[in-house]
Amino acid sequence: MAISKNDLTVLRQLVTQYAEAAADPINKKRFTAWSDLNSLKGCGRPLVWINEICWWEFDNLPQMTLLCKGKWARNMERGLRRTLFQWHNFRGDMILDPILFVTVQCSPTSTYANYRIKAHEVRAANCSSGTAMYQPVINSEADVDKLHMPRVTVNWKATLRELELMQEVCEGIIPCQARGIVHQWTAAWDTMIHWYGIERLYTDMFDRPELVHRLLRRFWSAQHRVLDRQEAMGLLASGNGNWRIGSGGLGCTPELPQRDYDPLHVRPIDQWGCATAQIFSEVSPDMHWEFSLQYEKPFMERFGLSYYGCCEPLHTKMGILKQVANLRKVSASPWSNLEKMAQECGTDYVVSFKPNPAHLAMDGWDEHLVRNYLQESLQKLQGCHVEIILKDITTLRQRPERLPAWNDIAMQVTNCR
After folding, report:
1. Which one of 54, 175, 176, 206 is least enclosed by Cβ atoms within 10 Å?
2. CB-based contact 281:313 (threshold 8 Å)
3. Tell me, what's the pLDDT at 127?
4. Nearest in space to 169 (alpha carbons), one of 9, 279, 58, 365
5. Under 8 Å between Cβ of 22 and 85
6. Rounded CA gap, 53 and 5, in Å?
7. What's the DSSP call for residue 358?
8. Residue ranges, the chain, pLDDT below 70
9. Is the CA virtual torsion 79, 82, 88, 92 positive or negative?
10. Alpha-carbon distance 253 to 251, whole Å?
11. Are the C-beta atoms of residues 44 and 35 closer than 8 Å to each other?
12. Cα 380–348–345 angle (5° rounding)?
């Protein structure tokens, strides 16, 4: 795999633009601000980050047109163009690193892996993506016992080759470095529900609880063994940095890695951990504990700090979540009672507030609605450590200007808090 002269020229121009933006002193200031937030220092202004963007609605813009021909070059070009576009138009409190990274090519890097249980997916005719139904394939103990630990693999040769390509592109402009797994999305039920089916799970938690527990024990045993294997193979990297933690904001913190950190042998305790049980949205705290958190807790506590939650409202679950010793951030989805979250979290946790992205998908853009919503939400969280994470942006109704407008409102509201 080689880079053509044309592709190299295009990429070096974009890398130069990136390097200039990454050299802006505001990046160091924001790193400090995120570090202070994650360390629960003071009650500074809420920090804003936008992700999970419907980039396909920006593809027709001139600055997003891809000019490279090679597959690898086009992927890099696409990433650079999106990063630079966000930086110039709706950066919020995003950070650009003064270095470009190549991720070590390994698997698995999340709970979405091969456990040797095949989901029975049912889709409408002529529908290859989008909504699907899942027929239960967990019906007996024998079905549970089919679950096996995923195989942990790494391709150092491919990683080195990609690093060499990146170095060729970035030579004399910005340094490059290979980096292992900095953080993993651990959403056990997001995976298992494809095998179990939501209705069957809800009835079995009452009628056949031991079957559910058998699956949980086997699944989480596999998770621990995968993490052990990743550590032993040297696939982990320090968790203090400019990357997403759970479904929330950036992981900058002076508390990681640990004081006895060895860069040649990174441990889970040098990283952030996370867990979530989105399908337990309407499940009682007691059942949430029994069929989810009691298994998630030991895994989360293997890490230095941890994050919990995603789309599920957690304002009634803080009583059980406080039992997680290293919990630092808690998700407050659009369906959360923010006043209750503020009462429960106080200044002991970072509240990861997720504004409703539906405001960007309405027939018309309503600036006053967005401003009032954000102001009222932040008023309810007054006195808390808060990050504002706009995500799940499914559509802007082909109005890409809405995202910069939302960003400007959010930055105005947070600076005036």
Report:
1. 206
2. yes
3. 67
4. 9
5. no
6. 31
7. G
8. 43, 125-130, 416-417
9. negative
10. 6
11. no
12. 35
Distance (Å) of CA 328 to CA 253, 256, 280, 305, 321: 11, 13, 21, 6, 10
Residue 101 contacts residue 176 (beta carbons within 8 Å): yes
Cis peptide before 257 (omega within 30 of 0): yes
**Which burial class, exposed, middle or buried, applies to 289 when counting CB atoms under 10 A from its CB (0-12, 13-18, 19+)?**
buried
Q: How many domains does the chain have?
A: 1
Rg (CA), the chain: 22
Distance CA 267, CA 273 (A): 11
CATH code: domain of residue 306: 3.20.20.210
User: What pLDDT, on a 0 to 100 scale, did the predictor assign at position 206?
Assistant: 96
Range of the domain at 96: 5-415
Cis peptide before 108 (omega within 30 of 0): yes
Which tokens is 144 given? Answer: 């549970």
Task: Please name the residue that has the structure tokens 């570090």.
Answer: 35
Cα(63)–Cα(80) distance, integer angstroms: 11
Output the CA–CA distances (angstroms, integers) from residue 393 to 12, 124, 202, 332, in the order listed: 30, 24, 29, 17
Query: What DSSP designation does 284 have?
Result: -
The separation between CA 146 and the C-alpha centre of its own chain, rounded to angstroms, equals 29
Residues 6+ apart with CB under 8 A from 376: none
Q: Encoding tokens for residue 63? A: 């600055």
**Residue 75 CB: number of other CB atoms within 10 A?**
12
- Burial label for 273, CB within 10 Å (0-12, 13-18, 19+), is buried
The pLDDT of residue 42: 73
Pick from 395, 87, 397: nearest CA to 242? 87
Instruction: Please spell the DSSP secondary structure of 242-255, one letter per residue.
Output: SSB-TTSSB---TT
pLDDT tens-digit readout, 304-324: 999 999 999 999 999 999 999
What is the Cα–Cα distance from 98 to 73, expressed in whole angstroms?
A: 21
Using an 8 Å Cβ cutoff, are 23 and 180 in contact?
no
